């Protein structure tokens, strides 16, 4: 039981962490709440389904292709819909929800509401220290961790990462220093969509693919970002893992727990907002700037 | 005759009834260091912000190297070679001092195609070294003293490799020793040359400053602004003796300078 919670918690937590980082990144840099973020994850998973099952491509190229397509889609969606209304947070939320529903409906029309599975890339089990885990789960955990390390390196070691951090901290000053803020926002949106697609690729073979799969992760991602502190990437990763484990524990330990999994994220969000609105790593009041 | 370097013509900025800048016209030559002075609220900072596009003017034009840049986006103007610094220091407080300067090195103007991060880091370090704060490169900007933040502002500005620097109170809040150091350093920057990997053509400068005695030592020409209008323009000596200027300034600081 404990090992099952551990393995599944890591798989879920890793996927939520990858999603939450992308969400937090766009929120921090472009200052938009992109509710379509988990829809990117869903479309990513569907693209893999289309290419690997329906068109019969090998697994690895279809994953790479799906991720690349999502990177472009994210940028296009930002340019097409969100860039024009980014000054109005409510409009951004409504439009991004609209985009997500658009994706959902297109997939519903195209594929119907069926649950579909993708074959694991590698079949079989591995035993590590007496804990049995499917290869696919190990791949999922490792890929999520690699994605998190990659985004950390990108932000801290590259030129574009430096510019992204500067824009996140103070877009006006970044602008005064000659940085094209809206270009950086578009790039960030692309990175975020790529992360969502990576999460989709990671879980597509572990879980089922269906046109409503974006809803549940969305609540979890919002909860993770609130738990970690809005705008803090470190916080959202930690929040995502806490929620991943909490959800798995509820599923395994509480009778009929699988029905309650949706409540976990929302309850955590309510409790955090009541007790510590700034989250684990957030700042209550930003220092007043003149 | 070649077009003047920076040409401001009839620039106006009205906030409702308040005429913050009211028909200001002046020009700055390519090899000039110009002081912009005036009593509090005369519109000096507003004028600077109009030139850099942070504020959009109500009317009038700003031309840089013959090109009309009135009301363009700030990032664009910075990439044309005008770099501003601010009266109130605004570093990226969560980034280390070195990374603060690296951000400037990333603007399209200063960026070289195919630069590795290390090269950019070295260029940023040269800018810091030139400003005398290279030892602070790894400290977060939030723990650095005010004097050093002022120098960081200048380091960030010169890292964009500007042709025209607009400095808003570079001496503000500095001790007399620091002020002297900063003055010498601006003079040296104005002379131009190579500083490590940073190439400086010796940028022209417009300096807004309240510490007149220190300012007069370094500038070639002074423009006096009062209630949004330019009242006098001339060499430091002429300006200090001018009656209108003394009146505008209550006279204290200026007359002490004369004696």
Please describe the structure with a list of short key phrases separated by commas or semicolons.
A: two-stranded antiparallel sheet, 11 helices, 71% helix, 3% strand, disordered C terminus, B: 259 residues, alpha/beta, Rossmann fold, six-stranded mixed β-sheet, 10 helices, 12 strands, 37% helix, globular
Layout of strands and helices, then pairs:
The complex is a heterodimer of chains A (290) and B (259).
Chain A: H1 2-30, H2 37-54, H3 59-82, H4 89-111, E1 125-128, E2 131-134, H5 135-157, H6 159-169, H7 171-176, H8 181-203, H9 215-228, H10 233-253, H11 261-275
Antiparallel strand pairs in A: 1-2
Helix pairs in contact in A: 1-5, 1-6, 1-8, 1-9, 1-10, 2-3, 2-4, 2-8, 3-8, 5-6, 5-8, 6-8, 9-10, 9-11, 10-11
Chain B: E1 6-15, E2 18-28, E3 33-37, H1 44-52, E4 59-64, E5 67-68, H2 74-80, E6 82-84, H3 97-105, H4 117-131, H5 146-159, E7 164-168, H6 176-191, E8 193-195, E9 198-200, E10 204-208, H7 212-218, E11 221-226, E12 229-234, H8 236-241, H9 243-248, H10 252-258
Parallel strand pairs in B: 3-10, 3-11, 6-7, 7-10
Antiparallel strand pairs in B: 1-2, 1-4, 4-5, 8-9, 11-12
Helix pairs in contact in B: 3-4, 3-5, 4-5, 6-7
Give a structural overview.
The complex is a heterodimer of chains A (290) and B (259). Chain A has 290 residues and is an all-alpha fold. Chain A contains eleven helices and two strands. Chain A has one domain (2-212). Chain A has a two-stranded antiparallel ribbon with strand order 1-2. In chain A, a hairpin with a 2-residue loop joins strand 1 and strand 2. Chain B has 259 residues and is an alpha/beta fold. Chain B has a domain at 6-87 and 161-258: Rossmann fold (3-Layer(aba) Sandwich). Chain B is built from ten helices and twelve strands. Chain B has a six-stranded mixed beta sheet, sandwiched between helices. A four-stranded antiparallel beta sheet of chain B has the order 2-1-4-5, with helices on one face. Chain B is globular and about 50 Å long. The chains are: A mainly alpha (290), B alpha/beta (259). At the A-B interface, helix 6 and helix 7 of A face helix 2 and helix 3 of B.
